[in-house]
């Protein structure tokens, strides 16, 4: 990987026969993977194939007690660990940097309870987001978050990263829906706060084993429109108009640029069919969710007509049925996959005020062009912008064949400095992980970082819990 600040190994250990004996004594044969490189590979490497560790051991506990036993043993023997859910994280937080033991939550996958009156769901941390949403759909409820990785990511990973996603605009930050957590501290202590905790950014402090979450009622009427727009100025106008005219039924407002669309076409993602035939510099997906289909659809049609009449949008199409709704969404959700197809993708996830949001993409293009690295047969083939306009969250993706330090040096710390100058955050929703640990100072003050380090030190004095992530070493 192209690492700017290669860390030195802090927690040294060699897995002994006694260690292996201990883990095999508490876990069944399908609860651990030892030393088989092929079997270990999917756990050692991240979704982008950017970060690769060399762990010799993956453990997959099936209940809270086993997680506690594992952590107590690791803490007593100073064995470093990395918690891992669905391994869909985009900042290298869920894979080992060296040979940390991977504690994977695949087998922690039971739904514990659901109350159909309050909508409160309590489940194991390893439940897959989409599985939970399907379970709730049968009961007329839904998960308050949705993201392209829903088929693989775990609710524990979502909570640890406080994932944002496609409907934050409507349902707010995930932590606002979390009523309680069960988490294990590095020394094995079980913190049972399943019904009372409002917030707990676990991540590098402990392992979440159970989550209690308040879920909203599933809307009876949902519809989606895709708009073709000629300028970013007009994307903003369309957003303002949507807030004004769709107000309480607006549930998503997503955008992507023409380069993203071209990439979807190039890689024929999910055999996607395109709702608008011509090409536009920008595309927007607007979703509405309410309780009265004919009333809501009329609102959406009036909204679109108004945008067309006032030349805010150049073209627009409303989905006619559920299949089309899913198809429109698959365009937006397919962009991360399309960006990763060339071989390497540098991902930046920033929050900035919406008026300057797309300027970042333009400035990075100019910078890479002037340095002679952007274009056909060059190091970088494309610079893409998409994201959650409704949350002021841009995903800047720099598409390349391989990770090259020359490219990294051109974009880092440039992107972080740019973000700081525009009063933004370098970690809008993906978290800091390994990728941005050394850059935390662009987002947090020295006194905040010092306090965070003190908290980490008091809870994890041996530094076994997910080392090298999140907090700067220097
Ligand atoms: P992992 O990748 O396994 O881990 C992520 C981090 O959480 C690591 O630091 C890991 O150590 C820690 N962790 C995992 N489980 C636990 C646990 N039980 N206890 C303590 N710590 C734990 N993110 C968004 O915010 N919004 C999006 O819209 C979005 N879309 C995505 C689309 C795609 C196609 C992909 C690949 C990723 C997307 N992501 C998005 C990023 C990622 O999916 C989310 O961050 C997700 O929440 C990670 O969940 P996971 O189970 O895969 O966690
Ligand atoms: C998204 O919004 O699609 C996700 O955050 C993933 C990504 O940024 O690629
Ligand atoms: Zn996102």
From TrEMBL:
Record key words, sorted: FAD, Flavoprotein, Oxidoreductase
Cofactor: FAD
GO cellular component, one term: mitochondrion
UniProt cross-references to Pfam families, sorted A to Z: FAD-oxidase_C (PF02913), FAD_binding_4 (PF01565)
Family: Belongs to the FAD-binding oxidoreductase/transferase type 4 family.
Domain of life: Eukaryota
Organism: Funneliformis geosporum
Gene Ontology molecular function terms on file: D-lactate dehydrogenase (cytochrome) activity; FAD binding
Catalyzed chemical reaction(s): (R)-lactate + 2 Fe(III)-[cytochrome c] = 2 Fe(II)-[cytochrome c] + pyruvate + 2 H(+)
Lineage: Eukaryota, Fungi, Fungi incertae sedis, Mucoromycota, Glomeromycotina
Protein name: 12328_t:CDS:1
Keyword Oxidoreductase carried by entry: yes
Span of domain FAD-binding PCMH-type: 51-218
Transport listed as a keyword: no
Listed InterPro entries: FAD-bd_oxidored_4_C, FAD-bd_PCMH, FAD-bd_PCMH-like_sf, FAD-bd_PCMH_sub1, FAD-bd_PCMH_sub2, FAD-linked_Oxase-like_C, FAD-oxidored/transferase_4, Oxid_FAD_bind_N
């Amino acid at each position: 990987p192209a690492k700017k600040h290669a860390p030195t190994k802090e927690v040294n250990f060699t897995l002994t026969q006694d260690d292996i004996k201990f883990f095999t004594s508490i876990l069944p044969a399908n609860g651990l993977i030892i030393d088989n490189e092929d079997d270990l590979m999917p756990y050692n490497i991240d979704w982008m194939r950017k970060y690769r560790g060399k762990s010799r051991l993956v453990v997959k506990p099936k209940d809270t007690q086993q997680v506690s036993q594992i952590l107590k043993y690791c803490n007593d023997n100073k064995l470093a660990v990395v918690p891992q859910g669905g391994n869909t994280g985009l900042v290298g937080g869920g894979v080992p940097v060296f040979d940390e033991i991977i504690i994977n939550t695949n087998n922690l996958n039971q739904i514990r309870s659901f109350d159909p009156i309050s909508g409160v769901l309590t489940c194991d941390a390893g439940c897959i987001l989409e599985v939970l949403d399907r379970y709730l759909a049968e009961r007329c409820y839904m998960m308050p978050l949705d993201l392209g990785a829903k088929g693989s990511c775990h609710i524990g990973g979502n909570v640890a990263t406080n994932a944002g996603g496609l409907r934050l605009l409507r349902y707010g930050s995930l932590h606002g829906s979390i009523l309680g957590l069960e988490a294990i501290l590095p020394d094995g202590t079980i913190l049972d706060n399943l019904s009372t905790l409002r917030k707990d950014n676990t991540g590098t402090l402990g392992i979440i084993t159970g989550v209690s979450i308040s879920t909203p009622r599933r809307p009876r009427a949902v519809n989606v429109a895709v708009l073709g727009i000629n300028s970013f100025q007009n994307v903003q106008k369309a957003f303002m108009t949507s807030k004004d005219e769709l107000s309480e039924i607006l549930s998503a407002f997503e955008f992507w640029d023409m380069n993203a669309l071209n990439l979807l076409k190039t890689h024929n993602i999910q055999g996607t069919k395109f709702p608008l035939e011509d090409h536009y510099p920008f595309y927007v997906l607007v979703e509405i969710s309410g309780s009265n289909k004919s009333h809501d659809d009329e609102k959406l049609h009036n909204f679109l007509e108004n945008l067309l009449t006032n030349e805010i949008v150049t073209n627009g199409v409303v989905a006619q049925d559920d299949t089309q709704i899913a198809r429109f969404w698959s365009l937006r959700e397919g962009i991360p996959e399309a960006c990763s197809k060339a071989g390497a993708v540098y991902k930046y996830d920033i929050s900035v005020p919406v008026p300057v949001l797309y300027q970042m993409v333009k400035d990075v293009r100019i910078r890479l062009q002037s340095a002679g690295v952007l274009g056909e047969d060059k190091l970088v083939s494309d610079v893409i912008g998409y994201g959650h306009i409704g949350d002021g969250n841009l995903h800047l993706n720099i598409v390349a064949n391989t990770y090259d330090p020359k490219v990294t040096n051109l974009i880092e710390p440039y992107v972080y400095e740019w973000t700081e100058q525009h009063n933004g955050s370098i970690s809008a929703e993906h978290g800091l992980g390994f990728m941005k640990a050394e850059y935390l100072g662009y987002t947090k003050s020295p006194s905040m970082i010092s306090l965070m380090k003190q908290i980490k030190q008091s809870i994890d004095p041996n530094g076994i819990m997910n080392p090298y992530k999140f907090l700067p070493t220097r």
